[in-house]
Hints:
The protein has a domain at 161-408: Receptor-associated Protein (Up-down Bundle), CATH 1.20.81.30. It is 73% helix and 6% strand. It contains 16 helices and three strands. It has a three-stranded antiparallel beta sheet with strand order 2-1-3. It is flat and about 100 Å long. 27% of the residues are buried.
Amino acid sequence: MPIYEYKAFTVKGKSVTDIIDADSAASARQKLRAARIYPVSIKEVYDSVSKKSRFPSGFRPFASKVSTTELAMITRQLATLLGAGFPLVSALYTLVPQSRTSYLKQVLSQVKDSIEGGSTFAAALSQYPNIFSDIYVNMVKSGESSGTLEIVLNRLAEISERQQALNHKIKSAMAYPILMFFVGTAILTFLLTYIVPTITAMFEDMDQVLPLPTIILIGISEYLKVYWWALLLALAGLIFGGKKFIQTERGRYVYDRLVLSVPIVGPLKQKLAVGRFARTLGSLLENGVSLMAALDIVKNIVGNRLIADAIEAAALSVEKGGSLSKALGESGLFPHISIQMIQVGESSGELESMLGKIADIYENEVESTVSGMTAMLEPLIILFMAVVVGFIVLSICLPIFEMNMLVG
């Protein structure tokens, strides 16, 4: 049955926004008026017949992206409603008008219809992999089978919120240095393309050999003024070509290997990947997902092909009866302390809690590393700007000093 979102007024003049099931918009208006609610506007959110026949399940052309923030909020709200005693279908029905994007409203409506049609919650969610990841679906599946869906949803919300908080801290820490870099680049480009040519124009009529720094500065300035478009085109081509190369199997492997070998950046990416691995694996194991299934899921979210291959190789070793810590240690991609802690967790039977501690350690290390990097980047950018501006000033002043010496 189609679902309609409406805005209306009650008999007391209060404005309300909600959803209603009806065969048509006219039927929805009749239902609302019978309940003494007077609609101002009615908009179809989802038609379970026509839209399902028009598009394959899970596919919507030009669908707006659902942010992780909104997904975490919806997950938290769903867990709260289930904890308050709402049946799953009623809870989903209640959440539809709370969604910010029309696409998510449609998806939640379709999930509700699938459950009413006899599908499990996890199976219904799995039809929309662009919103609900493998981790999300598998944890929901384990929560359904164990009767702890409310707890699992709360855990999913916590994982998402923790990752968002970490990403926000990293972005906030990097925002100022990146802003300084772009502002500085813009200022230097302006100096070299407009100010420097004006000042150096007077040197062209001088019948004397210019100092080398001045010749270099004039050459750079003239090149930028004439061929600035070529530089932008080359930069755009480099970025586009790099992205296309990284999207290939070999390109991604080469890029991930290169990133891990870069000083400072490599260890930071490694810590991020290991922290994400430990946090996700621990959460999956805590919610009843088997180790083999959890490893198969986790390898896809670490964000590095080399580390993903190491996890896949470790899964094969565990399947044959080997130790997870030993298999990960053989890759050489996991820090020694993380291997030791996993080994202790395996020996004590508390692998889940130990993985959580590993995640805490490396997430804290990432935060401190990023803070240290930004503290170092700011003076480096200022120093670079000072050196370049100093070179420009020196290149302009040297011919003037020579002229004064000749006149004197």
